[in-house]
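so the lab meeting is tmrw and i was supposed to have these ready like two days ago... anyway. pasting both below. for each one the top line is the aa sequence and the line under it is the C-alpha cells. i havent really looked at them closely yet so no promises
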Amino acid sequence: KVLGSEGQPGEASEAFRAASAADPKLTETVLAEMQKLWDSAPADPRPGLALLTLLRETRDSRRSVQVISTLLDAHPNLASVLAAHLEPILKEDPKQPFATYEMARALQHVKIYPRCAGLYLAAFRLDAGLAPMALRRLEECIEAAPDCPDPYLAAGTIHAARGKFMAAAETIQHAMEKM
C-alpha cells in the first residue's frame, strides 16, 4: 500500500503479486488492493496489467475481460498484449460474447480488419444485444480500410439478421462500389 501511495504503482503491483503468490489465502485481498491501486493511477497501465495477470491465474474470466476492456479503452497501444490475454480465455470458452467482442476490438486496434470483422459478427451471433456496438465498430473498420470487404459483409449480415434488409443491401452496395 505504501508504494502505491508514494506514486510507485509498478513496484506496488509487484509487491502485491508476490504477497498473493506467497499466501494464496490473500488473493481476494490482494485483488481488492490492486484494484484500488489501479483506480488511483489509471494513466499507468502496470497495475491494470498486474491485476489482469492475477485474475487470469485465478481463472476469473469474467473479471479478466472487464479489466481488458478498461485497459483497451485507456491504453489502445496495449491491444496486442491484451489480445494475447484474450486468446486463452476464448480457447477455454469460445462462447463468451463479450470476450469475443473485446478480441475484435483489440484486433481492430492493430488493424487486422478481416479477422476483427469476423469476430464482431461472431460476438453478435453469441449475443444479439451486441449488435449496435458491433455495427459501430464495423463502421470504424470500413472507414479505416474501405477496400477490405470483410467489415461490409459482417455489417450486412448483422443488418439482415436483425430484419433490416434495406440497411443490409445498402452496406453490400457500398462494398461493391469500393471493390
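ok protien two:
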Amino acid sequence: DVATFQSTGSNTVQCINYMRADGTGIVAAGGNKTVWLPALIGDAGGILSESNNFSFVQMTDGVTHTAYVNWGIPDDFTSLTSLTVVVTAGGTGDALVTFSASARNDGDNRAGGGTDDSIAETTYALTSNLYDYIDVTAAVNGLTLNALEMMSLKLSRNGGGGADTIGNVLRLVGAFVVYS
C-alpha cells in the first residue's frame, strides 16, 4: 500500500491519497483549496473605502477600531491549513493589533457557545502603502471547525496604544483561508 500525507500546519498530518497494493484507492482528496474573504466593518469608526480597485476597511490612528472576515465552512472541509490577512498601512511603523476568532454552529449561543481563540495584542511591522500578508493561523488553531459552521476573525487595532507607531490609517483588505 502507498499513502501520501501533508502537514496541516498545526502539528498534525492528513492523508490526502491512499492506494491499496491492488491499485484501488481509498482516499483521494483534491488537495488544498484557497478562498478569499473580504473585509467587513466591525465598529462605527471603521470606514469601508477603496483605492486602486481594491475595497478595504480603514481604521484611523489614535483610537481602537475593529474589522472582520467571516467564513461559512464548506461541506467538503476536512481541516484548516492556514489563514493569512492582507493589510496595508498609510504610514511606516508598527501596528498594535489583536486577532480574535470564533466558531459557531446551529444551536450555539452567539455570545458564548462554540469555540474561541486569539492572538494576544502584539505589533506587526508595516511599510507605507505596501500590501502585507500576515499569517494568523494561530488565532484559529483552537477552534473546533466542522462543515457548515460559521467562523469569524476580528482584527482589533489599538491605534492609540504607545506601541502603535504607524501614525496613519491601517486598512484590512481581507484574508486568504487555505483548507483541505
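from a quick look at the 2nd one: The two ends are 23 Å apart (CA to CA). The first strand starts at residue 2 and ends at 7. will dig more after coffe
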